[in-house]
Fold this protein.
Amino acid sequence: MHIKGNTFIVTGGASGLGEATVRELIARRANVAIFDLNEQKAEELAKALGTNAFTPGQVDVTSEEAVRKALQKTVDKFGRVAGCINCGGVATAAKIARKGDSSRTMTMDLFDFTVRVNLIGTFNVCKQTAQLMANQEDASTKEEEKGIIINTASVAYQDGQTGQVAYAASKGGVASMCLPMARDLASARIRVMTIAPGLFETNMTAGMNEHAKSKILKDAIFPARMGQPKEFALLACHIIENSMLNGEVIRLDGATRLGKL
């Protein structure tokens, strides 16, 4: 699939990995719809990037109605949609139990919130975008594929750390959806891929203290540093352009294996 001239949706597109992906797609002359809960940041980014960037307003990925309306606005603005990159998510941390004070342990509400945003929100956008792409007329170039979906998991889905029960469960669900979703959508000529990033320099990790970062990075092989959001964006763009990538989870982690914090 070509990037230039096609339209892509990026959830969580106003910051972090999503923003880097938006910027890279725009640099490659795509049209991009920025879906984000932070409407102000999304509008500021779209304005800064020019007419090929657009935001339909505030988008809560857990709301079927909000996503439906945002997709319709995207179609009204750009026409045919070629794919979506789901970067929207939350990072939560709490042990499920601890001796003594239980006020800082994982609650049902926090677990539900984490799964609802990271897993159910991802599914919601995937389902609605896939349905849209499946029913679109073929591109005039008659390319082999109709669309691409790229989801974001985390290396925590395989080696989650202390306090990451909810986060790892939510990202494990995202990773597990990849192959069956690719199989579901094969007849519609839509590919599905998942990226599982390690520790990246984003808003989610900005609040992590240096001691915690150093404990994680000590397990890195090479490079022994945090990833840069643009490195995620570059992989997302390669996935879009490489039609043989389908139904697979790619770890993007510098060979890091998370140890116990």
Summary: The chain has a mean pLDDT of 92. The CA atoms of residues 17 and 232 lie 7 Å apart. The beta strands are 7-11, 31-35, 53-54, 83-86, 147-152, 190-197, 248-252.
